[in-house]
Structures are given as C-alpha cells and as structure tokens.
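User: Here's a protein and a ligand (magnesium ion). What would the complex look like?
Assistant: Let me lay out the input and then the predicted complex.
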Amino acid sequence: MGAPRAEGHEQMTDFLKPHRIVMIAIAVALVLACIFLLNWSWLENPKYQTLILQGIWRTIWITIVTMVIGMLLAIPIGLAQAAGPWYLAVPARVFCTVIRGTPLLMQLWLLYYGLGSLFPSIPWIRESDLWPLLRQAWPYAVVALSLSVAGYEGEVMRGAFKGVPHGQLEAARAMGMPRFTALRRIWLPQAIHRVLPTIGGETVLQLKATPLVSTITVMEIYAVVGRIRQDTFIIYEPLLFLAAVYMCLTGLIVLLYRWFEGRMPKRVA
Amino acid sequence: MTVTAREGKASGPRPERIRIENLHKSFGEIEVLKGVSLTACEGDVVAVIGGSGSGKSTMLRCINFLETPTSGKIIIGGEEIRMRPDGSPADRRQIEHARQHLGMVFQSFNLWSHMTILQNLIEVPVHVLKVPKDQAVAIAERLLDRVGLLAKKDAYPAYLSGGQQQRAAIARALAIEPRAMLFDEPTSALDPELVGEVLSVIRDLAAEGRTMILVTHEMKFAREVSNHVMYLYNGLVEEQGPPEQVFGAPRSERLQKFLKSLG
Amino acid sequence: MTVTAREGKASGPRPERIRIENLHKSFGEIEVLKGVSLTACEGDVVAVIGGSGSGKSTMLRCINFLETPTSGKIIIGGEEIRMRPDGSPADRRQIEHARQHLGMVFQSFNLWSHMTILQNLIEVPVHVLKVPKDQAVAIAERLLDRVGLLAKKDAYPAYLSGGQQQRAAIARALAIEPRAMLFDEPTSALDPELVGEVLSVIRDLAAEGRTMILVTHEMKFAREVSNHVMYLYNGLVEEQGPPEQVFGAPRSERLQKFLKSLG
Amino acid sequence: KVGVAAEPYPPFTSPDASGNWVGWEVDFMNALCAKAEIECVLTPTAWDGIIPALTSGQIDMIMSSMSITDERKQTIDFTDKYYNTPAIVMAAKGSGITPTAEGLAGKIIGVQVSTIHENYVNKYFGPTAAEVKSYQTQDEANQDLAAGRIDAVMADSIALQAFLESDAGKACCENVGAVADDPTILGAGVGAGLRKGDPLLPKLNAAIAALREDGTYATITAKYFPFDIYGASN
Amino acid sequence: MMPLAAMAASPFELLALSPPGWGGTLLLGLANTMVIAVGAYALGLAIGIMGAFGKLYGGPITRDLLAVYTTIVRAVPELVLILILFYAVPGLINEILIGLGHERIVLPPLITGIAVLGVVQGAYSTEVLRGAIQAVPHGQIEAARAMGMTPMLTARRITLPLMTSNAIPGLANLWLNATKDTALLAVIGFSELTKATYQAAATTKAFFTFYLAAMALYLAISLLSTVLFGRIEKWARRGQRVMSR
Ligand SMILES: Nc1ncnc2c1ncn2[C@@H]1O[C@H](COP(=O)(O)OP(=O)(O)OP(=O)(O)O)[C@@H](O)[C@H]1O
Ligand SMILES: Nc1ncnc2c1ncn2[C@@H]1O[C@H](COP(=O)(O)OP(=O)(O)OP(=O)(O)O)[C@@H](O)[C@H]1O
Ligand SMILES: [Mg+2]
Ligand SMILES: [Mg+2]
C-alpha cells in the first residue's frame, strides 16, 4: 500500500510509459509463442468456424439481455428492501435469499426440466401460440439468468440505496420532489454511482455464467469449445481460444463501465 | 438601514404563510422541542436565534416534515398538514406540494454530489415544476451570477470552497422561486462582504412578499434582516418580538447573557 | 481585553513553528494560490481573512500537505518538508510526524461517522501517539466537558447539531495536544456564547505557547483572538499586520471595502 | 492409475452410495489389469479434465466408454475396441418415426454432445431435420423426449434400453430400430485411451484379445447384459 | 411431475445417512465445499484488500499490474483457469523436473483448488472493495491524514470500517459464489456438494430428490451466511442515520 495521493486532479498522462511498453512486449511475445508453437489447425475447419461465430453471438446476446432485464428487476427489489414497506421488503428479501442461496445450475435445471416439462402435459398450453416458444430452450435460459441477476443485483442495490448520504435525500425532499422523482434523479444515480465497479464485476460474472445454458441445449461459445475439445481431444488450444474470446468480451465490458464511471465526479463530499 | 420599510410592511393584515402551533419533537428519550409556536405572514422575516443544540434546526426541519413532529400542528399557506398519529404526513401529495413552495437551505448544504452546480439548480425546476429547460438554465445562471458563482457553474460540489457551496445552496433554494424560505445558518461560511450580499437578497425577497424563517448565529445579521426575532432556549421560546426590542431591551436573563458574550 | 498580554508575547525572539514561503497551488488550470508567505512563531495566533474562494482553506490544507503545493516551501518546526518535483512529500514519515503535532479543525468538521464522539477523540492519541487508553479517555472527557459536550460523548456524529459537531471537531484536534493548530472557520456554526468560549480556549492555548493559524469570517473574533492578521485576496496576500493596524487603519482599498460591508 | 469419468454412466461405471465405483467397465478394467500384469488404481476424474489428466501424467490410462475416432487418434492413442453397441433411435410411442432420413425429416432430434451419435445424426439426418439439439447427458435428452420437447433421440442401444425399461420410459417411448451402419462413424467402438507412444499399448491389446479368448469377457458381460456387447469383430 | 424419477426407493431411503442412502455422501460433499469456500474466500479477501488499496493509491506500475490481474482473472472462466493452473503448470514443472532427472510431483488438490479459487475471488474482491472505498466521504480520510495517521493506520482504523457498510452486499455475493464455485473443483477430482449430488442423481435417476435436497443444503448455508452478513452490516452501519420515511 503506497502513500495515498492527492486525488482529483491527476491528469491523463501518456499511455505509453516505459513499464507499459515492457508489459506490452511481454504480452505480444506470449501471444506470438502461442500462435506459432501450438496446434490451431482445427480453427480452419469451416464446420467449427460457423459454430464458433454462432456461439459467440449467443453468448453476447444472452449476457446483454439477461443483464438488462435483471437490472430492471433488481432496482425495485433493492429499493423494496432498503426502504419499502414490510409487505414488499419481505418477499424481496426471500427472493434474493433463494436466488443467491442456490446454484444457478440447479435453478436452470428445475426451470427447464421441472417446470418446462410440465407444460407439455397441459393441453391448452400445448395448443396455444406460446407452445413453439415454450418448446425452445432459450426462453428458460433467459428467464433463469435474468432472475439470477435480479437476485444478486437486488442485494447490491439495497446496499447502494442505503449508502447514499442522508442529507442528499433530505435536500430533494425539502424541495418537494415527489418520491419517484427523487428516486429517479437523486437516489438512483447516486446509488448506481457507488456500485458501478461492483456491477461491472457482476456483468463479467454474468458473462461467465452463460456457459451453464449449454446444459439445456443452448450452444453458446463455451459449449462450442467444449464440443471441439471432445471431438478432437486437443486440450489446451481450444481453451486458450476460449480464454481469448472471453477476454475480448470482458475487455468490452470493462471499457463500457469505465466510460460510465468517467462520466461521474470522482470525489464524494 | 431600511428599518422603516420593514416596519411599514409589518403593519396591516397580510396573509399568513407558515404557522406552527405547540410543536413538540423528541428523539428517543430526549425532548428537543417542548412546545414551540410561531406565525409568519407574507413578507415576514423571522430570525431564530439560540444556543447550539437548542433545537433551531430541528424546528426548521419539522416545518417541512424532514423530521416528523411528535405532536403539534403545522399550517402552511393556510392549509394544515394532515398528520398520522405518529406525526408523519398523512397525505404525501399535500406535503410534496407544500414543499415545492418552501425553499430550504441546509446547515450542511447537501448539494447533490453527482450533479454540477448548474444541474443542482435546474433539477427541481425542470423535473418537478416542469419549467422548460432553457428557461430554467437562464434563471439559474442569473442566480449564480448574483451570488458570484457563474464561473463555477460546471464544477461539482466537492470541488468548491465552503462559502461557494453555501452560496450554491442558497441559489438552489431560490431557483424554485418559493413563496417561503427556510434558511439554516445561511451565512455561516461567508465572509462579511457576502453576508452583506445575502442580506440584500433576503431583503429583496421580503420586499417581493416572500416569507422567510432563518436560523442564524450572527446577531448583527439577524437584527438587520428580520422583523421578528425568536430566541429559543432548550426547546422553548424564551423570548420573542421585534428585533429592536429583543436586541435592544432583552427581558430574559438568559437572553441578556447570550447577547452579552463576545462583548 | 488582554491586548497587552498578547503584545507582550509578540516581542522577543520566539522559536519559529510554521513558515511557508512563496506557496503556489493550482487545480488544473486555475491558480488558487499565487505565492503566499507566512511565518508563525511559538504563541502566535494568525488570523487569515478574505473573501470566499480566495484560497484560505487551500492554504491551510497545503500546510499539512492535504493538498500538494505546486511550488514553494513549507517549514514546520524549523524542518523543511522535503517535496518531490510534483509537490508531494518525499518522505512520508516526515510529513506524518509533522502532522502529529499539527491539529486541524476542518470547515466541514469531518468527524468519523462510524465512531462515537469519545472514540473520535481518543482515536489518534491511542492508535498513533500510543497514549494509554484510560489516560486518553480522561483527557477526552475533560475536553468534551470544556466544550459542553460531555453528555453527548457516546452519540454518533450524525445525530449531533451543527454546532455540536463543530465543537467535537475542535475537541478532537485539541486531544492530540498539538504544538500548532490550524482552524478552518472554527466558529461558523457556533452561537455568540460558544464563540466566546472558543475564544478563551484559543487564548489559553496561545498562553501555553502553542501556535495557531485560523481562518475566520468573523472579524470581531479575528480582532480579539489574533496577534497577526493576514488578508488574502485572490490567492495573494493583499495586506497583513497586527490586528489593530489591519482592522483599524487598513491601507488596501479592497480590504477597506471588505471590512466596510455590513456596517 | 486409471481414470474413469466421474460422471456416472450405468451400467458401465457408477459410484454406489459409499463412493465405490462399480459396473461392467470397472470389472473389465480389473480383469484387464490382472491379465496385463499391471497395477491399476481407479481414479475418478471429471470428463472435462480427463485428457489433461492423462497428458500431464496424473493418470495413465482412460477407461470411460470413450469412442475411438480418427480425430481423437491424432491426440491420444487408443487400444483396440473392448465393446461396441449398436445405435438406435427412440421416439414417442405411436409417432410413426422411422430411423431414416425421410422418417426424421422436419423433426427435432436430441443427441448427447460430442458422441459418435451426434456426428452420425449431423451427417445423415441434420440436413433434413428441423433441428439437432445437443445435450450434456443422455438422461437429459431422454427427459426432453418424454416431455415432448423433442421428437426423437439417437443413442447407444444399452443406454436407451435402460431408459425404456424404466416406468417413465415405458410410459412414453419406444425403440423404433437401429440406424443404417456407417463403420467410419459408428464402427470403431470403445477403447482405452493412452498417452501417445505409451509402450503399454501392445500389452493391453494382447490382454483384451486374451480376455475375449478365455471367456472372462463373456463372464463379466453376463453379469450385466443378456447379450454380447463386443459387436461385430472386425 | 417427475417423468424420469422412476424411483425404486422413497426419497427418505435415498437420502438416508448411511449407504445405500446417499445422505452421508451429500453431507461429506457439503463439508468439502465449506472447507474450500472458506479457504478461497479468506485468501480472496486478503488479496482484495491489498489490491483495492494498490489500485487506488499505488504507483503506476502497481496499478497497471493489478489491472492486468483483475482483468485477466475476471475475464477467463474459472474452469479454464483451473484446468490450466492445475494441469498445465504442474505439467511444465514436471517436464522441467524430469529433464533435470527428478521425480514427478503431484500437487495436493485441496491446496491447489483453494489457491486457484482464492486468486479468482481476489480479483472480484479487489473491485468490490475499490468501489466501496471510493464511496467513503473524502473528508473523513483527510481528517485521519491531517492528524498524522500512517496510510496503514488510516486504512485499518478509518477507511476499512467506513467502507465496510458499502462493501458488505458485494462481499456477501462473493461468499455465496465461493460456496458454489467449489463445484468447479470437480474437474480436478474433488467431490464437493454439486458433484456428489450429480453422482447420486445420475446413479439413482432420482434427479428431483437429490437436486431439491442439494438446493435445501445450499439454501441453509446461504441463510446462515445472510444472518451473519446482516449482523456485520448492521454493525458496519453504526453511526449512520436511519432514514425516516
Ligand atoms: N479540489 C479542487 N479542485 C478544483 N478546484 C478547487 C478544489 N478545491 C478548491 N478549489 C477552488 O479553489 C478556490 C479556493 O478554494 P478555498 O477552499 O481555498 O477557498 P476559501 O478561501 O477557503 O473559501 P471559503 O471562505 O468559501 O471557504 C475556489 O475557487 C475553489 O473552487
Ligand atoms: N437525529 C437525531 N437523533 C438524536 N438526537 C438528535 C438528532 N438530531 C438532533 N438531535 C439532538 O437534538 C438537539 C437539537 O439539535 P438541533 O440540530 O436542532 O440544534 P440547533 O439548535 O440547530 O444547534 P446548532 O446551532 O448547533 O446547529 C441536539 O442536542 C442534538 O444532539
Ligand atoms: Mg443547527
Ligand atoms: Mg474554506
């Protein structure tokens, strides 16, 4: 732990400092070594190429869609716990506890193989226009993953709502802001501000939770790579490739959140 | 000093703006307010003075229900705020509406830390009162100019000096063009020059017919700005009256002692 | 008033405690301090006055390196604080050591919100200065009693009135028994009675030979408490001297205007 | 050390409640090791880590119902096959599905991921089927068939037979027959995996042949199956 | 409702504690899970505290290295990291050892598992704690520095306690993740709760019985932890005003 620096006015100096150049050089050397010393022939197989592209695309949209739906649910859930009346707070709490307390894999499994296999035995569902949708696997994946985000982020939002200094809300109330406006304009932005780093991390976690959907036949990138590995028994190369894909996606997420964070004041009074 | 102007306004019947009757407030065991009453009419400037911890801020905060009174009545603009038995407002709408016409400047400023100064000022006009944005910006900039902060309009509160934050807080309260204002030590972080400026702002507002209740520790300021002074001691009104009387001929011994200190 | 006593102390050579030489400080583009120098010796009470935003707090914060000066020298207890080219202290130990003998009272109090008042007071004595705990508690309770807060010793800061917080902050700074103290508007939230009390505390400290630099907006207070007054305008020392001269016969036009406002 | 996949695949390998691994493959392994005069310790390993475990030397042989394919041979060595069971198609009762490209046209077919059956379905039925769904385990595919979310599954006859004999299987589904053989995909059977160039290989092949010869193979098989599972000798 | 759960035995028989019931296996799995989770979480927290301070107050090299660490570790799925760290790294070491004429070494799976998960947890803790520290009011840290507290002392006495209330929800999430991530160690032959459940279910085909049982066990852990973290949070929020509505 170094000495704390005075914050707030550090200017963005040149990206290329000497140590950065060394780090980049090492990274480049590693990548080159991987490219030339390992066996990448499987990547040339057109069958795998299409599978990989499809897989990456599925991973991306599942992450985004479930994250968005989940956050939209998480905000009221967090709020209900932080400031809601008991008849909202208690169910929200129970929901978060159950979701966070049990493995996502098992939730997914119960939803798809449990609930999902009940539907076909109910004739009117089978007859309805919804059946083609309910027959697919991805709706279950989206529901399960979104609920999972809602559960985890609901908890995070609860802490964030509670952490906003008292005076900030008093100022809003004193000026006659309706409760919802105060929530939308003051409470929520400040709460989000405090948890942006956390939510950034949770988004990455969500990205890495998507492999679970392969267990209900949604073939995202992890499943595709798993399949390639089992087809060919090549051990590390597909894994390295997978790591690279996730790293790129994570990089995008990190950049996105950094951009969000950059738009906020650094210091809280 | 424009004593005559204020005295002139004090006479004649003017509509009542803020009235509190027999206000009590306890925090747990401690009774902070023990029955305070006050009436402020249009154009009135009431200065509340008193020792630290005597309940001045609490009284101000009760007026717009930031604290729920333990008992007592609060009447704003002739309308009594309906309370539940526990003192919380029974009708959220009513209290929100009342607050929109009650500007408040906090002792600790409470500027919104995630917004620039300008954004702080236009927040309520634009999002609550539905003033068109450019109009709100124009008003806000005029106010900022008046308190000498126009250059800082795009700075975040955490990067301002204490006095600048206080001026921004005053400007924010003014930006909603309230009918009545509650000031909690509005000049505590200001130098004499700025105190003079705030004084003139308050006088202008009073001349426009607005009502003001202000808590202050600066007796000179209280004397110059108010037409009614209230001395709070230990949660009770120990003495009140026109400033000439309260400062010039205090009857209560405690008030005499209070005013005597620091020569 | 004890003008003679202070004058008496002012004569004769006393060891120098705090000296700043040609201090500059910029925040990004804005230069807030443009070359300020000051020397304060044992028993000196320097009052810093000036308009809001003139750089008073920044100067105070530079003295103990809460802000890194852009350039200039800071000499504490005769020892120059070594700086890196960017103004940050080169030797963390040195600056930590210096700070332990520099009490500071912040404009915004900055009491630690997770500790009770008593815990706030004994924190540094016990954990930095290694005073035995019961001894530290005894000192803290004496100080709290002196500022009238003994009854609140187990309350958390968020539940105190503004003036109570300020008094607690002053007591916290005193609890480390510093050789020199920096006060940033120590009386802004206090009523006249308490201002008088703080005045007497500061006088006692000066009599014990401690050095004090205090930023204040209350001219009367500055005049009574200090033996040297410094008027800051826009990051520069516009005028300085003994209080009789600065307040009684100001030379600078700006200072005249500054002092004239509010009668 | 011999690795088996820690995922149960009864009746070949599965743990009992006290953590002992049992099944045809376990018995066969014991017999094989005895015959080849090597000492074997059974080490359950997750399927995902089983190849790295082999190559990094944490285990020395894999016996985990692993099908021999050309693609895999590029990475590890296989012994000769030690069993090979025919592939069949299972569909809902009375669906009228036949195990041919025409019979499965427009249907949703479930298979276990990375099996020879998946390769077969993709090659022969994929182009005309509505969709081919890949499941992590055969149990899940069976369950979805029972639930009506897919129309047919193709898999190893032994695995499906066990399901068809269960209550759930009896209620919903039937065996609609074996698919046309394609030795290049289905024919190679199941072998034990070894590190490339392992000198044990000829010894193990000899032992497998010997077990076939001396009737041990038949004895072990009879304990679990009413028929021979070696498949056509090629 | 349970198409496949053609249960020969009742759920109670299946869940009996001694064989042929699988209850004992599940509880053993639970115990393994807890050991790994506690170890990994503690290690992760230690890394996280240092990482967060390093990221906020460290020099440029420290910060860049930490950025690389958190980005890579958080980016790559744990399973991939575990496979690489558990097989590839010892593989390399062994090759070198054998090249030098030494014996093969086999890493103890428990320690390795805890280390790997701890390193992963550390990256997440770093970010949670960094956010929490940033949300601490600046003035309170300044007050500590102004009184000559060393950075270590400031961290210990002021910053850490103040940020705890902000960090608790995120840290609670991480803890629950730790209990569930132990399932990843099944890859290296570890029989923890998820793995034990799966084995029991697949062997007996009583999927619902075992999955519901496992979910109940996980829920029990989680409820206990929630109570515990709730206590900690309440304590951490001491001194903060509770909002009146
Ligand atoms: N961290 C910061 N970043 C940018 N600008 C700052 C920062 N801190 C202070 N300033 C600016 O520096 C100037 C001087 O601030 P300072 O706090 O020293 O004023 P002051 O003399 O103490 O005023 P006051 O009497 O109002 O407290 C102000 O204009 C302020 O906006
Ligand atoms: N939320 C609270 N919980 C408990 N006690 C409180 C709370 N708020 C205020 N108090 C106590 O109530 C008393 C009155 O506080 P108040 O803030 O009204 O004082 P004040 O007159 O404004 O003082 P000052 O001039 O110092 O600001 C004080 O003793 C204070 O400690
Ligand atoms: Mg107050
Ligand atoms: Mg200041």
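Summary: Strands of chain B lie at 16-27, 30-41, 45-50, 71-76, 79-80, 102-105, 180-184, 211-215, 228-233, 236-241.
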